[in-house]
Amino acid sequence: MSLLQFAWKNISGNSLRRWVVAICALLVAAFALFATLLLRGAAVSLELATQRLGADIVVVPAGAETEMEGALLMGVPAQFWMPAENIEKLAAIPGVEAVSPQVYLATLVGASCCSVSEMFMVAYDPETDFTVRPWLEKELPGGLGVGEVIGGDYISATEPDDGILVYGDEVKLKGNLAPTGTGLDQSLFFTMDTAAEIARVSLFGAIKPLVIPPDQISAVLIKTKPGSDNEQIAVEIYRSIPTVFPIESAKLFQSSRAQLTSLLNIIVIIMALIWPLAILLIGIVYLLSANERRRELGVLRALGATSRYVFKTLLAEASLLAFCGASVGVFLAVLAIYLFRRLIMTSLGVPFLLPSLGSLAIQIGIGLLLAMFSVFLAVLFPALKVSRQDPAIAMRE
Fold this sequence. Notes:
Shape: elongated
Strand content: 5-15%
Helix content: 55-70%
Number of domains: 2
Strand order of the largest sheet: 6-7-5-8-4-3-10-1-11
Distance between the termini: 27 Å
Low-confidence stretches: 392-396
Number of helices: 12
Largest sheet: 9 strands, mixed
């Protein structure tokens, strides 16, 4: 009989030890993996959203910064306006290399003239754009024509021939952007000309027309010159145009970053409580179990087993229990993240991007190792104590 077979036979004969150790390993692995996936997924998502914007500074109307972040991060539709003349004013500020306006729109709620209810839409200027254009140059060299759109990762066609109905106007989905885990994944992007065409068709094809105020825009994306001080440029923008609010890319999504930091602190505190308590509980249970098995282990020693063999047997039992419990734990953590990621995003107010299979495998491996290491620490002292006892004394007790 091999060492593992012998260890498994011993496990099956002690239900209390089996369940306590396995459940502790499950909790450690599940919580560690869940927390890691959540925090890493949120951090990566925020970084990708910032990169997708591709701007050093985003300028929105004063008071609309929270609305704008909510739309970009959580896909909450938003509409706000400022004069288009701000584009020239911003372009004239020293240190500004390029400016590009955007218009933020939203579909109607539950209307038959829109395929998707409350979808965030972004209209951009193809002549000045530097955010969507890099993707278009790679995937669609011809760019987007009137009536053509690209969507976030979650967007799919709802009508024949890749069509999506927006305010009674059927636009054609030409492709999807890479996932970011933010509201950008459930957004539509199209040119200003397409926005004007949708507004025109909506006058007679929609329950409620799409109104785009003339000479109005929602935001201006700014690319600064290399070596420029973005903070100083932002201050100059605020000083020159008091009715707008400039947001540096490094300070974008600050509320979500603060939420993420608070979440990290809470998780660290919880982990600092769970981990030592789990180790202590496993150690106590194993020590009690070892004392109950002193005669059994003494007989094993009397039959020729060395103290090293007994020690390895006890560790093998603990490792098997830890692996089984941790495997269930990581499975439950991944399942919970996958099934409830939208609920988690909404409840915590942070975006989230599922990791790639390679990254997920690495994180699962770390979770398993952490749980097995925890059990190893817990059973080390009881295993050493029992394996070194004198067999004659153990058999008499």
